[in-house]
Batch of 4 targets.
Target 1
Amino acid sequence: MHERGEGVETNADLDDLIDVGLFTERPGDGAFAQENVLLMQRQPARSGKQEIRVITTERPSFAGIDPYNKYVDRNSDDNIVAVE
């Protein structure tokens, strides 16, 4: 979202390469270390719903898009989710 100068937010279009990560532990919690990163690679991301598929040899516990919050985001807590 972005503001148009009058305090009204509107959705901003997205079409960029953004970090996608898979983790054995939630990033930012406690003793998180490099060995907790199963995959970190930039993937094309665009506005709207999309599906990103990656294959790893170990099942992740968490997955995220922009997991280290490099982009400005009002709700960065929703960038990482537990893998079901």
Note: The chain has one domain: 14-82.
Target 2
Amino acid sequence: MQKPTIEECEIFVTGGAGYLGRYLIPRLLERGHRVLALVGPGTERKIAPGAQTVAGDVLDFSYAERIPSCDTFVHLVGASHPGPANAKEMRSDLAAIRVAIAAALAAHARNFVYVSVAQPAPVMKAYQQVRVQCEDAIRVSGLNATILRPWYVLGPGHRWPYLTLPLYWLMYALPSTRDAARRLGLVTLDDMIGALTNAIETPCFGVRTFRVIDIRAAGSDTARGR
């Protein structure tokens, strides 16, 4: 595999073969960005044509030695099915973010983008705890970063949360649960891809957080600006 040059990498993505990555990378390519994606065994074919790839393990810092400097480092790696049965996978998320932070610093990334989870929430406590630790690691790293906090993302293969919409309507109607409904609201896949694109194209100084309401707004801003 040919080692990329600095000019060939503007955005480096981990988790590019995952649910969000498979939609984000084509969007970035459409908008003229140069994308390099980290791939594991058998995932190369899931990366959109036009993006370059480099083989590596998200838990092994050695991949940092094979990537060039980049403007933005996007970390999309995370437990796909958070729950007690996947406790080991969730704990590995913290190890992966520590490697990603070190790799981003080594690549002199000026912008770091990370997908966390809405919090606090009454369920998935262990998952939230790991994500809080991941966020804390980003904050102490000194990186300029955007942290996105969705709850459930509606899209292909992720339709079942629509069944919870009546509950959300009830929660919005009651003053005592309205804030929780806003914090734990549903976002669409288009919202997320738009918000991720916004976070990449409008970097910040320091660390900012996109809550559910911010994800929707950023996604809309990106759609209007296309």
Note: The chain is about 40% helix and 15% strand.
Target 3
Amino acid sequence: MATEFIKACNLRGSFKTIRECPGWYRWWFPEHLADDILSLLNEQCSAEILTLRTQTIGDDKYVCLYVGISKNLHDRVRIHIEGPFGSSTFRRTLRAILVPNSPEHQANVYINKIIDSCYWEWEYTDTKEQAENIECEELSQLQFDYPLNIKDNETISSNWIRGLKKIRNKSVK
């Protein structure tokens, strides 16, 4: 099955197009925003040269910073787009990097704006185990780096992962 793309802002409030099935997904950030996020991370993590997966969507260049899986893609994308910081590692990580000490309401508004500018790519799988295998393969190959992933991420250095964990743990939860 081919992957599908949708701009996150087009999902907000209406997730009917996403089935309640297992699968894997990627988050694609506008290039300028990815550069900003990586610049902030480089200040606190060990700076390293990253090989990032890029794609042109429309006339704009996007960068994949995060890959994930779920047993229920419908619920997962809803949580990533509208859920509280504590229920989404993705949202929590973005908050920790971009607005670590902002009050929750302010942080929500800002992170929602960021997420709305991104594309979400996904593919359904028959089982969660299939999705896990795809994610594991993606995070163990050394072709591309996924700098916002922590768990089982072999594409970036352990120093980077420690730095990202430290950033997330210092952030308001």
Note: The CA atoms of residues 45 and 162 lie 8 Å apart.
Target 4
Amino acid sequence: MDQIVIRTATPADAPHIARLWEKLVEYHWQLDDRMPHTSASGGDIYVQRLTNRSDDPNTHVLVAEENERIIGYVLGAVVDLMPDMFLPETCGFLADIYVEADYRGRGIGRALVTGLADWFRAKGLRYYEWYVASRNDTGRLFWAEMGGQQVMTRMRAEL
């Protein structure tokens, strides 16, 4: 079995990451069709946004690679999630993570999250947050195993 390498993404990785992002969106949509679905140009827009942030010191992308093929990624940023009527509180935000289905259960997601958490820690942050789909039982179990604690539940009412 070949070795999986976790490394910082480069601008050349953006199209490969966008392909994984499209799979992430499809995965969530298959779990729950109330989740947003990608537009026809969604992957291209994602490539552009990754490329635009490639030099941003508050954005970090790691990829998991095997034999020069990107099989997973995680995207994180330093943010202030509080509206301005609250005291500002900078934290990490894990925006996206995806690992190809054939590679799940091998610790790759854990390695990606650990690498991003190390980057957040080096930035002097005390914590990071993320969203997980309510119907993503596997994801919710993964995040609980990673030390995640539910802070608030986002809800929706159909009109």
Note: Helices lie at 14-31, 42-52, 108-122, 137-145.
